[in-house]
Amino acid sequence: MSVQHFDSLHDDLIHDVAYDFYGKRLVTCSSDQKLKVWEMSPDTNNWEQIDSWKAHECSVLKVVWAHPEFGQVIASCSFDRSIRIWEEQEHEPKNSGKRWFEKARLVDSRGSVQDVEFAPNFWGLRLASIAADGVLRIYEALEVSNLAHWTLMDEVNVHLSRNSNTTTLKEAEGNYCLSWCPSRYQSPMIVIVLDGHQDLIHDVAWAPNMGRSYHLIATASKDHRVRIYKLLDNKDGFAIELISDLNHNTEVWKVKWNVTGTILSSAGDDGKVRLWKASNKIESEGFKCMGIVCNDRQSSDTMET
Amino acid sequence: MSLFSDDDSKVMQFTPFTFEPPPIDYSQFEGVSSFPSSTQFYEESANSETFLKENVLTKGKGRQAEGYEPNIKTQKQIMYLNPPLVYDLDYWSNSNQGTGVKFHPTRSEDFTCYVFGKEPIEKVKKEGYTLDTRVYNCSLANDIDSRRVFYNETFSIFREASRATSSKEWREKSSREKLLCDISWSYVNAIVKHIKILQENPNKDEHIQRELNTFRDMMAIWELCRIMYFIKSERYQRLSTDLVTWLNECYPMGALTEEELNEVRESPNLRNTVVFWSRLYKLILRGLFPQAINFLRSILIPVESDKYINREIVINDIIQSVIKCIKSRPKISSHDTDLAWRNWLSQCSQVQKSIILENKFLEESFVKILKILAGDPDAILSKSSSWLEGLIALIYHKYPRCDSSDIKAILGPIFVRFSVYPDATSQVLKRIFYQRIDEALGYCKYIDSWLLSHLLDLLCKVDLDEIIGGKSFRERCLINFAEPLLTHSTLWQIGFKYLEHCEKYGKVYIEEFIGKVPFDNERKFEKILKICEDNGLIFDEKCITTAMGTKYMQIKRYGSTMIYYMRAGKDENLKTICNMFLTQYVETGKITFEEVIDSIPVDKDSNESVNFLSRYRLYHSLIQDEFFHQAAQVLVECLRSEISPKEFWGVLLFHTVPLMKHGRRKEVKLFEKIHIDEFEHYCTRVLDRKIEDSWIKLVQRMKRWHYKECGYFNISEDLKPVKNECERYKKFLSKLKR
């Protein structure tokens, strides 16, 4: 085990961190309205800042990288209701504030844009977004060399399709999240919200498939639970089954899968990250807590499962 | 920041050795120090860290320790990002902060943690939290850098092992065993070599120490598997000597403690020193007879005084008799073992009966040695300090001709007396003796993924695959081992090669990871493509090639970009680049793509856009060199093939005007009548409403330089200059005909 850190020097809270496709670059976004791009220096083995710039007019909530076949492209979304597309300008010097050029600004949302994610590259340069107005929007750059032009391909009102429970509805307005299915052997699919939670969902993550005959989707919920659903493709659609209902002990804010879909992380209201490892027989033995990352040394509650 | 690992370090001393195949050549022990350096198995050496790992509840002789179940719960790791900080329990739930995580996109056990704001600052009231903007890069994986040489070497052995199964020798049982032992031997040699490298490393930090311990464990397990599973024929009479050699090499006797050494040094008479005898028992137990004989000779007292003459002579005689017994122990490999063995036992028994001394301590000590030699279980186990030592001494002295399947029955009394320490290595060894290789492998995963994957691979080759969980278990373990290699800067190719040996899931992993190998140079890029090609990953090959093209595009190296896009079949991307060059021409009248297009190998099968660009470049160079006839031909071809963008047809038609003029002036027939008809036809198509807007814009841009700057004829959106010239040229042609 090893831990190394660097200070991003944001002036306010970080909201998201994203690796590029190879894991050699990082981008951070913050309530200070800035994006910062970092690169792993092979000489010093440290993350070095490439550029930092004011990207939005409000807090930047999410940031994602596009596949490298589309170039060095970042999409960010913000409380200012916009999505912005940034492309690296190789000719501009590092840390000039001009290295990343705003290629497009997508302003269709009527609420803060809460999540954005590029589709897997085999579906082209597509970007899904979901905003507080409860609308899922899918954009596509039909000419990948022309990042200035994005076509709004789909608009789905998720808000209406939700449970009619008004309390949930009201709360849900502020909490939307999405995740693309990473499998190339399925038609493009995206997950937004799943039934089964007793309370609000903060995050959802679709696991890499890795040759499994089924899909796994994890959710982070306000009711302290991390749930893992199995999706089995059959003739009539997908059979959905809850295969793991894990207790994080506090409200869970984020869930993320590792590259092989064998470890799931859950970040909770206790300042801790729990790592859940898949057993060899996922269906029968499920997931077990393999480790805890504690941000600080709290007096208790460090070894519970 | 610090890291608190609950990892248990296993301390086992290593004695450099060459593992000679049995039977033991006793001469190799001549001159070896009487006090080996390791404390591991010397009496109840409480110093050894192995003892510290013992579960208090299961400690104690007479009880068999409960099996160490290294379940996930006990393996759970805790990582503190900020150990000095102690917030109150409600800090995180009451503040607008949480700890977030993002996994590395290529390494399954690496991730980044950061303190994130749950809500945007616009939605929360200002609060007095401590702002933490640090980003923590965490890794659960072990560093594999120090193992590069070892992994490279053992991959070659792995590959040889894979090839061996299809060889002629493999089909014959006897030569198969030799092949297997050779492969196993190569692996052990690689382990020993790596241990030596680690020992020679001047840096003795925690990591190196941990690696040393792991490799020693791996060697002990691997060699025991070889002895128990890979050698099948001629097993009779060899197992006991194999095992005693294994014990002495993998778990050598411990050195005397300082206290014990002092006792020896200060003792007026070694014969009455407990430490001396304890040491001697060990040597006998472990079959280290030459050393034992040296020990015994050291207590022979030259008889000088008459006073003690009788007593000393008697003791000296006993010593000589014991030495004689030791020396005459039959070689287990001899043909008449049974008879020789019985004779020798009776000789030991006679010597034992003849020992009657005033000094009862001495008498008991001699008797004990003879009892050990004769295979008395009580004597053996009472003087053994661990279950391993007791078991192997019992096999060596009491059941010297036993077979591996007999060992299970011998283990009973061992575990009545001894506990097995709960560490994974001890559990693996115990299960190997029980011939529960499936369970042993289950514990191997807590030792090292290399060991598990490679041992499993070899065991599958001795038809144990059904017992050990089938070929899919082998595959899973190989994939687990190979995965961290895939993104290593130098070992990545080996990683993919391992995956190629996994029939069921290997390709899925190659598919998932091959595109994620960063390529800094074209050599590496070509290697990546070769892996795609070898595994039929056409789609991935295209993605990687496109990414390479885009990489060049970013730095405006269009020639390379186009070459890679052509390889990837990215027609749309190529069209965009070609259109960009044509637009530049329309804007400035300059051919900016000469060098680019000259660097690309273009043929008739090339992409349409590239093909047009190449033809267009040829047209301009022909004009420049005043080869008007050929230029006219190229122009006609370009129009006829319709491979140029439709908007550009008008530009090509404009190019016909000076050529027609030139033909008329010089009275040279550059175009045929049919060509002129075609030009008129294309004029009509260009002026088609569908392309009118873009056409008008193009002409406007072109006008800026065509007439004003370059002084060419005045172009117009209605293509009038072309139409007029066509009329004139037709007249010229009819005149020429007349």
β-sheet strand percentage of chain B: under 5%
SS element count, helices of chain B: 34
Structure summary, number of beta strands of chain A: 23
Work out the helix count of chain A: 3
CATH hierarchy, class of the largest domain in chain A: Mainly Beta
Main location (chain A): nucleus
GO molecular function (chain A): structural molecule activity
Pfam families (chain A): WD40
GO cellular component, one term (chain A): nuclear pore outer ring
Describe the structure.
The complex is a heterodimer of chains A (305) and B (738). With 305 residues, chain A is mainly beta. Chain A has helices at 158-161, 166-172, 282-285; strands at 2-7, 14-19, 25-30, 34-40, 47-54, 60-65, 73-78, 83-88, 100-106, 113-118, 126-131, 135-140, 151-157, 179-180, 190-191, 201-206, 214-221, 225-234, 237-247, 252-257, 263-268, 272-278, 287-296. Chain A folds into two domains: 1-161, Methylamine Dehydrogenase, Chain H (7 Propeller); 162-305, YVTN repeat-like/Quinoprotein amine dehydrogenase (Methylamine Dehydrogenase, Chain H). Chain A is built from three helices and 23 strands. Chain A is globular and about 55 Å long. Chain B is mostly helical and 738 residues long. Among the domains of chain B are: 91-139, no CATH class; 626-737. Classes of the chains: A mainly beta (305), B mainly alpha (738). Chains A and B meet through β1, β2, β3, β20 and β21 of A and α2, β1, α3, β2 and β3 of B. β23 (287-296) of chain A pairs parallel with β1 (77-82) of chain B, so a sheet runs across the interface.
